[in-house]
Every structure is written in C-alpha cells, then in structure tokens.
Amino acid sequence: MREYGVPALFVPADESNMTDALFLGAAEHPDQVIFGRRVDGAWVPVTSKECADQVAALAAGLIAWGLNPGDRVGLFSRTRFEWLLCDYAIWTAGGVTVPLYETSSAEQVQWELDDSGAVAVFVETGQHAATVAQIRDDVPGVRDVWVIESGGLERLSSTGSATTRDQVAQRRRQVKASSLASIVYTSGTTGRPKGCAITHANLMSEVGNVCRAPGVEEVLGDTKSTLLFLPLAHILARMIQLSTVQTCTQLGHTSDLANLPARLAEFRPTSVLSVPRVFEKIYNTAQHRATAEGHGRIFAVAEAVAVRYSEKIDASEHPSLLLRARRALCDRLVYAKLREAMGGRVEYSVSGGAPLGARLGHFFRGAGVNVLEGYGLTETCAGATLNLPGAQRVGSVGRPIPGCTIRIAPDGEVLIKGGQVFQGYWRNEAATREVFDDEGWFRSGDLGEIDEDGFLTITGRKKDLIVTSSGKNVAPAVLEDRLRAHWLVSQCIVVGDARPYIAALVTIDPDVFGEWKQDHGKPDHATVADLREDPDLLAEVKEGVDEANKAVSSAESIKRFVVLSVDFTVAGGELTPTLKVKRNVVFRSFTAEVEALYSGPA
User: For a designed S-S bond to 475, which of 190, 306, 460, 571 qualifies (C-beta 3.0 to 4.6 A apart)?
Assistant: First the structure.
C-alpha cells in the first residue's frame, strides 16, 4: 500500500486557541485535581481552578511588563509544574513560547534566543541565568530574565495586580487558531537547529484528534494519571502534557531521574511516556539481575511466555488456557516485579523518539505494560501515527492519527499531510521549500512501509542508509536496535558507507559495568578504557553482535567492532536530550577508531 489516511475527528475553530481547554476545565470542574505538584518532598494536589488562576496571574504580569501579541519568550527549564504555568501564561498573554533544553550550551541558547527574536526568558535556576548572562550582549532583544527558583514567577505575577481579569481575557481572545504558538528548535542531530514554526491550530489538531481517537480513554481521562520525566522542550513530552489538560488526566512532573523509581512509587501513575532506551534498560537490568541470582532460566521462560501471549493478541487469536495459566504463574514470579518498578499501576506507556523493536514491544505487553509506539517529528507536532488500544500492531508505529494521511514515495520516503504539520521553519524559506514537495506533502526523511491495514513501519532514515562499496544497501537501525538489547551495551553506531563491509562502534553501559567486572574477577578500579581490549569483555560484546547479525543477511552483518573508551552522553555532545545519537558528532570524534576497523582483514 502506498497511501493511508484517517478522517479528522476534530477541526479547530478559527476563534479558538490552546488555552481554551485549561480555562474551560476550570469553569466546568473547578475543584477537580488535575495536577500533582511536588513541594518539599511531598506531592501537593492542584485543582483545575488553582492552575488557571496562577496562569492568569502570570499572564497579567507579562501584559503589565509589556509583552505584546506575537512576542517570543524563551523557556529554559527542566520538566516541572512551573514549565506548564509559563507555557500557558505566555499563550494567554498573546505570546509565543520558545522552549530550550535545560542541558543547552551557552552557544545553543544564544542561537535560539537570537534567531527567534525573544524579548525575555524564563529560566529555572541561577545556573541557567548565568548561562544567559554569558551571551546577553549577543541577544540585545532580551530585556528581562525571570528565575523560577528565585521567586521570579511570584514577583512577575504581583506586578500584574492592576491588570484586570477582563483585560487578560481580552488579550487571550485575540489569539486565534492561526496565531503562532511556539518556535520549537529541532534537537540538531545534524547541523544547527532549525526553528519549527507551530501554530495553535497545529497543536489543537494534534491534541484534539489524538484525544478523540477510539481507545484513548483507556490511557487518558479523569480517572487516569501520568508522570512526566522527559524534557518538556521536546515536542512529544509537551504534547502529552497538553493532552492531559484536554482530558483532565492527573499529571505529575519530575526531573529527578536519579530517583525516578522512588518518584514513580510515590505518584503511582497509570501510564508513562518514555523513550526506547529506558525500556531497554529496564529489560536488560531485570534479565541480568535474574541471571546473577540464579533465576536466568525462569526469566527466559517468562520472556518467551510474554512474547507468545502478545503475539497471539496481534494475530487476533485467543490465548489457550495453558498459555494463560503459564502467564499467570510468570506474572507472580517476574512481571509483577517489573510493574512494581514502574509504580505498580502502569498499564500503558507511550514510546517515541526512536524505534522500540517488536521483541521488547511484545515482552512488555505480555508482561502487563502495553507500550503504544508512535511516530512523528517536531515538524508534525509529535505523533503522525500511533498504536492505540484495540488498534495495535507491535513492531509498527501504528496507523495515522485522525486527520492525518501517510504516503510512501517511490523511493520509500514517508510523506505526511494533516492539520498537525507545521507551517515551516522560522525565517528560513529555503529550508522550508526543501521539506515540502509540489503537492504540499511534508518529506519526513524517514523510510517506511504501510501494510494492508494501514500500519506504518519505519525501516530507516534516508540520510543514515549505508551503501557499502559493493553496492549493498544497509539500514543501520535494525542492527543497532538488536545490539543495544545486550545488557552490557549502552550505545552503538553501525558504519560501512563506501566501505567493503559493515562494522560497529560500541560503548559499554556504565550502570552495569561494575557488575560485569565483579562477575568476571576484574579489578574494581579498572575503567572501560583499561579493559576495552580485554578478551572477556570482547567475548561478551561479541555475543550481542552475533545476536544482532541474526536479523540480517551475511552481506549486511557486522564483521568487526570496536569498544570505545567512553559512553555517549548528552554532556559530551554525542546524544540529543532525548538520547538519540548524533551520528555526525560521533564520526568526527572517533575517526581514528573507524579507520582502524578497516585497516586489516575482516
């Protein structure tokens, strides 16, 4: 199939904007608790009216400060409740939000504030304020900086006391569906980030259609809850946040990733948003721990049962009585412990940002946590396709959301049309022209296939496609996903473009390296750099390579690999804030290692 579309269930009215759901909810059910705000180590309930009042007060402060309709305001903070307040307040005052990742360097902050023409910026901490101070002379348009942790929001709100509710409401009503809502900068896996110009209509098309899609009520609704821990500067986390407001789902925020299990245990969400790397680590940790405790066979059986059970669901077959009994036993021995690590109540998770893989998808669904994988880009306001309860095919990224159409170009590229597709790149007409074809389809840059039922499968990235010197086309994602499934492997990059064979750069997971050293009698003080050529370590990684190679032909398989001395990190510049590898950065940093892979016989 070359094209598949789903009719829209919601079309934004011209006079509407993204703030409507928040203020309508406050008017219709003012006392309903829709947020949990962590204060001094405890979760404090926040009602819809309390949130709307805080947003209105902050918007009044922005208006009194001098924010004009259409002015851009930066938002430089980790994931927290105040992020939501700032975002909605900027919109309510008629402004445009420019999110910045809290890990951004001074150079990145300078570029995004200057390119967007921001007039002010909310920052979370004094450290963030210091980063802005470093580049203040290079962003002369920025007139003020408000520090969240230093009482900046409270002081700004107090300055708006003379601005009446009617004046705030009047300013809010000036914002139309066609008004610009946000300039979201791409995470920049290659080149300098471009600003995606996203309107209120784009956001409302995404949220309105996803929240009305059949089956979503099992994930979002007034009896459901979710805990956000991914960066809200990323479009996917932000769309989940907006969707919870739309559906009155109780929402909590945390950026305390070091203590995430404790936060999950406290908040006990019914669903979570995550990225594949988190699921990989949960699985790998559980598998290794079971093996280390002498329960490896039990875990292997539990995994096989979970996968088989999930595969039966995909095939629309009723699991046999024997399979159901085996799953019930495995639930008591294995699955319940996995769910408890996620808070004990999680039934669904939304996964995006990178491919999850069918193996993990089947395992987690069979274990009682149904991972709904979707696909989209910043340019499409996150999800263009999504697996839904009752309309799911594990291994795919789902069908188009209502109001969206997917087309596969002759060269295999995924093309997208719909109300959620952005308007273009901010002040960059040349780049905008490059990503839209003559019929107005957005060129995603990804390769994919649509099956007879409309489910999309992503097969690779056009720019990442490797063509060996013999002319063999190799999609690296298949090999990389399989290799990362090994418990000791953190990241990997498959190489081989214009080379005689496929090879790989591999990094070791620092969280489990200590366990591996202990298991293999290696010195505690030894680093990965010390042991990167150790025969035992290489043999362990080779097991992962051999398993990955089972997914491809001999011509596509990894012939050689090298263990790098360091892991890829956000701080080191090799990973985006959503943990996607910046391939160009890795290639520049490890040129010598790549060349060494081809210096001798394969």
Answer: 460
Q: Is the dihedral of CA 68, 152, 196, 386 positive or negative?
A: negative
Phi and psi based region of residue 101 (left: phi greater than 0; alpha: psi -120 to 50; beta: remaining): beta
User: Which token pair is 100?
Assistant: 């910045």
The full set of domain ranges for the chain reads 18-175+220-269, 273-462, 465-597
In angstroms, the CA 198 to CA 535 distance is 52
Closest CA to 231 of 282, 263, 184, 192: 184
Q: What CA–CA distance (Å, rounded) separates 261 from 369? A: 16
Instruction: Identify the CA nearest to 579 among candidates 221, 280, 228, 156.
Output: 280
Nearest one of 235, 276, 270 to 389, comparing CA atoms: 270
CB 378 within 8 A of CB 352: no
Give residue-wise pLDDT tens across range 303-319: 999 999 999 998 888 89
Of 210, 242, 214, 253, nearest to 36 by C-alpha is 253
**Domain 18-175+220-269 shares a fold with domain 273-462:** yes
pLDDT value, residue 162: 84
CATH 3.30.300.30 fits 465-597, yes or no: yes
Strand, helix or coil at 277?
Answer: helix
Query: Which residue in 554, 555, 547, 386 sits closest to 480, CA to CA?
Result: 547
Name the CATH topology of 18-175+220-269.
Answer: Rossmann fold (3.40.50)
HEC string of 317-329 equals CCCCHHHHHHHHH
Q: Could you report the per-residue pLDDT of 108-143, keeping only the tens digit for each?
A: 999 999 999 999 999 999 999 999 999 999 999 999
pLDDT, tens only, 168-193? 999 999 999 999 999 999 865 445 78
The C-alpha atoms of residue 337 and residue 311 are separated, in whole angstroms, by 22
CATH code matching the domain that covers 273-462, chosen among 3.40.50.12780, 3.40.50.1100, 2.60.40.10, 3.50.50.60:
3.40.50.12780
Give the contacts of 219 (CB within 8 A, at least 6 positions apart): 270, 271, 348, 350, 372, 389
